[in-house]
Amino acid sequence: MTAREMFEEEKQETKQETNFEHYKDEILEDYAQNLAVVKGRPTLCYKTNCNVCDFKINQIGCREKAKDWLKQPHEKPVYKLTKFEKELLQCYPDIYSFKVFNSLNGMKEKGYFKGIDDNEIIGDILAKCEVIEDRKEVIKND
N vs C: which end of the chain shows fewer Cβ within 10 Å? Predict the structure, then answer.
């Protein structure tokens, strides 16, 4: 085991529990009824029409569905990029996050890279992307 691996292991052992980790079961039990999920993202139930909620249940059973959803492992989204966007990202170092590059941020403001998480590492974006014909395809599927 390298010194770095030993340090990382020790750091994980001394990590202090967060309030969320400590109260997770109570939060799941008491507040899941206020949760809706739209397109894989959490939102408030009272602000969401049942027809657009991923649970697709009219109030009966929502709480159980919400608790089940919260317990599932998080799946990163598949990014939909045009061929141009993918090829452009391949020109940047894949170890940095998207937000580091002002040129990419400027293009995003102009309508490119829709749905890309600014904090995502470029290599991870490229690993989880699907090439689409054009932007209209993204709008149609969203």
Answer: N
Contacts of 86 (CB under 8 A, 6+ apart): 126, 129, 131
- Amino acid (1-letter code) at residue 124: D
CA distance 83 to 133: 7
The helix (H) or strand (E) run that includes residue 79 is strand 79-82
Q: Looking at the whole model, is its pTM more than 0.70?
A: no
Confidence class of residue 98 from pLDDT cuts 50, 70 and 90? Answer: very high
Report the chain's terminal Cα–Cα distance, integer Å. 46
User: Locate tokens 């045009």: which residue?
Assistant: 82
Tell me the C-alpha distance between 35 and 43, whole Å.
6
